[in-house]
What we know:
Layout: E1 2-7, E2 12-18, E3 21-29, E4 34-39, E5 42-51, E6 54-66, E7 69-72, E8 80-87, E9 93-102, E10 106-116
Antiparallel strand pairs: 1-2, 2-3, 3-4, 4-5, 5-6, 6-7, 6-8, 8-9, 9-10
Amino acid sequence: MCLTIEPRSESELWIRRFGGKTLATIQRLGPPGCVYEQFGLLEFTFELQLAGRTLKHVQRAVALKILHCKIPMPLFLAPHVRGQEHASADDTEVQVAVEVHLPFLGLLLAYNGTIQD
């Protein structure tokens, strides 16, 4: 996996490349301790929980975002994302693991890898 982060005025464009496939999302700060991540028309709200050298992204909400309207989705109907990062002892690497599950269908996508400084 190759990760590119492009800073923008109030957000960051995260581009992940897996061989010939690309997954791009936009991340921006949310309420204290949270981050928003937009993928297409879906906007996820994640609470960031730090435990030692591990940062967990705990999904708290999902909304359908059309123009400037946000329509909350019931969590039981929304995709569910689990993600965590674990920093190495010398802070030169971060192990990343992400899973995306669809309601009633199961695992849609999973990836893990190491991000090096």
